[in-house]
TrEMBL record:
The chain crosses the membrane at residues 7-28, 93-115, 421-443, 473-495. It is a multi-pass membrane protein. This is Peptidase. GO terms for cellular component: membrane. SUPFAM superfamilies: PDZ domain-like. Pfam families: PDZ_6, Peptidase_M50. It comes from Fervidobacterium thailandense.
Length: 500
């Protein structure tokens, strides 16, 4: 049933996104007198069709895009006055440009609606690393970050990008209802290592010295899956090293971003709305960092171990929880009193419950701007998102950022999860997708709107017609290359879903 809901939600969302984009092409074609033969959502045979006086409106069976078919667009069609290639190049430029602009504009309008209706949630600090720059200037867990260097902060990526520059930053914090300003200078961190072991015997702790008699940092940078002997200050660990990842040195101030609280947001299984989880399997739970550790422990099987290190020093060792897990919960009754009780749940059942989208209340409080400030914040929020997309999206064509890209399969899953959380989350996802679509189509690549814009600009500059056969051939080759990219991203989506 959930899969059906996810697919239906995806189709509805995608239809909206496609209609907005194609509406831009449609309206500007009409404005400049170009005949629109078809306005279609999806590809393939139609499942719904309505013939208008001038346009054939269709919903097709494969809802993975859409198009407007303009007179004169197909090879061999005459360049008549009401055809796409029969109008001036500047008009064709605007007709093609209108689609991406409508998509991006829809993102701006959606963020205005979201921030005007629900406000936004600034960053909350979950925890502070001991002896870090943040701790030394008095930043503490629970502080809410409103601004960095005088600009509002909307997400972790936004704030991290500023900190990674390594320059001193000014933070405006909200602490117990009052605003506090602190100045902090990021410091270069050591490399961080995350190791997963299987068939574990022995123990690990303190500083790690060697792996198979090879210096630890030397070994882990060229690790392979094999049986290892790890020598540390607290003992020797013998196990199969099944995975290792490295976070390189970077500028940081020593904080953990708060994502969600330990308060249940809705009735799920034995948990009731407003229940507070305080421990899972004996592990203390106070914030999202603790919850992530608990989820890691729930995901580990017998004989497995998860170890994180900063440089050579072990920060955290997480062992698997038993098959029956005791959860401590604080509940609030109708008269306002609280009581503590425990639940014993099967490990897999608990993991599934805690993975439910929207099960926990978000950690950050809602900040709702007054007056027309929401308009300024909405524009600023969307500007930064659009700039981030513009900078990172081209990287997929050079093998970068591929894991950050989501295709149709991944979108079904993301939209389905958003449906379970609520309308605000759905609209946010729609806004992000439609801005992505608009910016992607502006890339100057064959078969995309950006490629057609380039040809229109060349014609405007050269003041003469470009051979249409050459242009069509280039767009056809580009279409098949983009189709190959779509297939590749679909495989990435499937691999991600399978946990590979």
């Amino acid at each position: 049933m959930t899969a059906i809901v996810n697919v239906v939600a995806f189709i509805l969302v995608f239809m909206f996104i496609v209609v907005v984009h194609e509406l831009g092409h449609f309206l500007f074609a009409r404005i400049f007198g170009v005949t629109v033969k078809e306005f279609a959502i999806g590809f393939g045979p139609h499942i719904y069709r309505r013939r208008g006086k001038r346009t054939d409106f269709r919903i097709n069976i494969f809802p993975l895009g859409g198009y407007v078919r303009l007179k004169g667009e197909e090879p061999g069609e005459a360049e008549e006055p009401d055809a796409l290639y029969g109008v001036a190049a500047w008009k064709r430029f605007l007709i093609v440009l209108a689609g991406p602009l409508f998509s991006i504009a829809a993102g701006y309008l959606l963020f205005m609606l979201i921030i005007g209706t629900w406000g936004f949630r600034p960053i909350v600090i979950d925890d502070v690393v001991p002896n870090s720059p943040a701790q030394r200037v008095g930043i503490s867990a629970g502080d809410v970050v409103l601004k960095i260097n005088g600009r509002y902060v909307f997400d972790n990526v936004d704030m991290t990008a500023v900190i990674r520059k390594g320059q001193p930053v000014e933070l405006e914090l909200l602490r117990e209802g009052r605003k506090v300003t602190v100045n902090v200078t990021p410091e270069m961190t050591k490399e961080q290592y995350y190791l997963h072991f299987e068939d574990v015997q022995g123990e690990i702790g303190g500083e790690v010295l060697t792996v198979n008699n090879v210096d630890f940092e030397t070994y882990v940078k060229s690790w392979k899956r094999e049986y290892v002997s790890v020598s540390s200050e607290r003992g020797e660990l013998k196990a199969v090293l099944s995975n290792a990842s490295i976070t390189p040195k970077r500028y940081a101030i020593g904080i953990y971003y708060g994502q969600f609280s330990n308060i249940i947001a809705k009735d799920v299984g034995p948990f009731k709305k407003s229940d507070v989880i305080t421990s899972i399997g004996g592990l203390k739970v106070e914030n999202s960092v603790d919850l992530i550790d608990a989820m890691t422990a729930l995901s580990l099987g017998n004989g497995e171990l998860y170890v994180s290190l900063t440089g050579r020093k072990v920060d955290k060792v997480i062992s698997p929880l038993p098959e029956q897990v005791v959860v401590t919960v604080h509940s609030r009754s109708t008269d306002g009193s609280t009581s503590e009780h425990t639940l014993t749940l099967a490990k897999e059942e608990l993991k599934k419950i805690l993975s439910t989208p929207g099960i926990f209340e978000l950690a950050a409080p809602v900040f709702k701007p007054s007056g027309l400030e929401f308009l300024k914040l909405s524009i600023e929020r969307t500007n930064r998102l659009a700039l981030y997309i513009w900078r990172t999206l081209p990287g997929i064509f050079f093998g970068r950022n591929v894991r950050e890209v989501t295709g149709p399969v991944g979108m079904v899953q993301i939209i389905g999860q958003a449906v379970q959380v609520g309308l605000e989350t759905i609209l946010t996802i729609v806004a992000i997708i439609t801005i992505n679509l608009g910016i992607f189509n502006l890339l100057p690549l064959p078969a995309l709107d950006g490629g057609r814009i380039v040809f229109a600009l060349l014609e405007m500059v050269a003041r003469r017609k470009i051979n249409r056969d050459v242009e069509n051939l280039i767009h056809t080759v580009g279409f098949f290359l983009l189709l190959g990219l779509l297939v590749f991203i679909t495989f990435v989506d499937v691999a991600r879903m399978m946990g590979r």
